[in-house]
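Supplementary Text 2. Reproducibility record for the structural model of the 655-residue chain.

All settings were left at their defaults, and a single model was retained for analysis rather than an ensemble. We include the record here because the model underlies the residue-level annotations in Supplementary Table 4.
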Amino acid sequence: MKTIKKIKLRYWLIGSLALGVLMLMLAIRAQFVDVPLRVSPATTYVTAPLKADGKSVDFFAALKQKYEDEAVIQSEENGFRHLVLHLSNFKDESIDFYGDYETLCAELNLETGDENSQVKFISFKDFVGEFVRGEEYNEEFFLKLADDFGFDKSGWEDDGKFEPADAERILLKRCLKPWTVEDLPMMKKWLSANEIAFEHAKTAAYKTFFFIPLQSEPLDNPTVEDSFEPGAVVLILIGQGLIIRANLRIGLGDIDGAIDDVETCRRLGLHLENMPNKGAKLAGQRLQELSTAVGINTSAQHIPSKQQLERLKNGHKLSRSNHSFDWLVFQVRLAMLECMHEGTSPQDFFWILGGTANDDKESEEKRRMLELGINWNLVARRVNERFDVLAKDIFNPPQVPGPDDWTFWETISIRHRSERFATMLIKEIDLAYVRSFHEHNCSNQLQRITLAMLIYEKDHGSLPPAFTVDANGKRLHSWRVLLLPYLGQNELYQKIRLDEPWDSAHNKKFWTHSLPIYQCPADKGTNFGDVGPNPGECHYTVIVGPDSAFRGSEGVELSEFRKDPVDTILVTEVTAGFCWMDPTKEITQSAVENGRTLIIAHTPYDLTGISSNHRGVHFGLRDGSVQQIYPTSLDPLHEKLKPILRGTSSKSAFE
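Retained model, structure tokens:
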């Protein structure tokens, strides 16, 4: 009997051990198998409508339900509907429309369109391409333009071929500066062909609404990731055309006409930024960049009036609609959850986030995690929590620490791996969208400041001094205080005692006064790593020196500068915040010329150098425009800025 019991015990132990080993193997296996996304509010966020299979969420349909109001889309006050009705471009695949025209017309409640009642906008690119192939084309004319404007000819000199694309780049570079038909006679035909199209664009831009129905490719299986606003490409081409015509009008002295074109381009850009799709928002930002790059104070023969400068400055009071950010957060959220729901790769997330830069190490790490297995429900919950935060405050959300170095636990634990993957996605979401809005806002603010300086010059006969001083030469106040009445802050200006130093007991009360116009919205605070500027911080400065536009306590007359003052720098940016009233923090000309000139985002602060939280550094120029120098063109930045400061530059550094 005892023998039988021993045998049973042995078998029980063996069985238990085998079962334990099996359970251990299953547990280990579970750490390396994807856990698919379940449909629930905490994971997929939306639970309806479902696709035909009755199991998968139709994220694209959910997006259209939230975004599209049929009554508004089909209204005669919809500016986009006006463009589709009057322009034939929206059924022309040669401009990369890639939409279904019949579906678009049906959603807008339009007939498919009679070409005889429509006009076609001729894009600059198409016009130049046709011109280069025509009999009137003169290669020597373009080569001379290239020499006059410092265009790099190595691209065609190396292989001996001058391509139409080369002619397009040269002519566009010329057209983005003031010009006349006498300068560029071939452009007369382009202007004439597009006159009616430009009028339709202006009418559309000033309509009550501007809504573009969403489409997706392919139409039979639409996805949020592949959704797009049909016509965004057309609007970019029209916006570029408006800026080209604005520069013609500046060349002719028609400043009001130029401002009309700039404002139409700006409005079209804002309309696109109000769309829920990332592609349309990027297109809108491009149009905004084009509009701020136009300088109306360029020609000594056609000087804008104070009223015209005010009009251009006041155009920046236009802002995105309140729902713009809600739609952005909703669209990106659904696109990411859709990828998790249907299977994904690191590249899918890369495109959803607008091409956010990923280094090879990060991309390889994501691929490794996906190969090992991810719990998509955990990732989705973490991502949804972040989007809930962004929905409340997309501009200054609390910062999320980056992931630590890869550890053993990420290798063996699906939970740790999924947490790490979620953290990496959240960091990229912030970088891709929060920062892109900041860059555009920073450019707009710098142009408002630049135009305010020019308006100040109209009233006082000179630019504001970099700082004011008392009888003993002690600094009292900075130019930022003097500009307050020109930036809608006259009430604050009246409270400050200008005859007392900026740090007097009375004036100290205004140190922490919130002035967003002087704050770069992308700034991370005085302590590197914080998010959002501290109250009273400032990030815009002038360059002080004997050859610059600011010479200490002396106000400089613009007439002192050369006749072609396009690149004269008035204001620029720094990453290190300082008190907006402090008159001692301006950058010196010697610091710039000695090479202390640049720090791009995510590097330690330097209080003495021009620096930026963006892709490149913004500069407000004497012509009223804002331009950027990007990292690819920065070497050596101080050598580019030196002749600009001294007024000896004959070619633009902002190309």
